[in-house]
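HUMAN: Mind making up another protein with tokenized structure?

ASSISTANT:
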Amino acid sequence: EFGVGKTTLAQLVYNDNSIRDYFDLKAWVCVSNEFDVIKITKTILESVTSQSCNKNDLNSLQVELKENLSSKKFLLVLDDVWNENYDDWTKLRSPFDVGTSGSKIIITTRSSNVSSIMRTVADYSLQILSDNDSLCMLAHHALERVDFTGHLDLKEIGMEIVKKCGGLPLALST
């Protein structure tokens, strides 16, 4: 579902200080509609090495990525994945077997088919916010407060906005 906070939640995890200390390497790739295994592998490699790469051969990219991930604990986020092709996922994931125990790959997707193809653990579906939580979030963004105390005249308008947003955090923050 669009706007429930998948990317935002992944960003919070990715940027958390304790996460930074736990992993040797981190990489973030926004995938979207085009699941190009070579392009994604190259982006991961460039993120891990902090250097640009002009290779375009999947095998040599994966060999170099394996060398850089070998014996390291890594966190990889693949954001907004749409591809439902199991073979593409199998090709992409082959270099990740060299990471040490505790390495993680987080995938954000709107598709339950994608999560069932890629998962090795149970997926977690984000739910829309309750009206009360939505109202608190709106108060936070609009008034920089936890609620409408001191601004009761705005609470009714806030509830109308909450109903229009349907519990979607992205709509509420916008």
